[in-house]
Amino acid sequence: MIDASARLERDDALAQAAKVDKINATRGRGVVSFSMKQNPPDRKALLAHLLGPTGRLRAPTLRSGRTLIVGFNETMYRSVFAK
Q1: What pTM does this model have?
Q2: Which candidate, 71, 51, 46, places its Cα nearest to that of 61?
């Protein structure tokens, strides 16, 4: 677990992404999903979805099992946690 007040930079975000099989990230009102095992995105595309305008990991970010969830989208949260 990482303290919520921690300011995670680019390298920290990449380290978190390396620990999961799937990333769901919000982009505007939509959600983009990346399969980190089958078809991982290039580094530039991945960072574009993980980092906010400050260059830090976007909030909220949480990890559920082998899935990293970046940003908030109600439908995405329902699909991940409706088990």
Answers
A1: 0.87
A2: 71
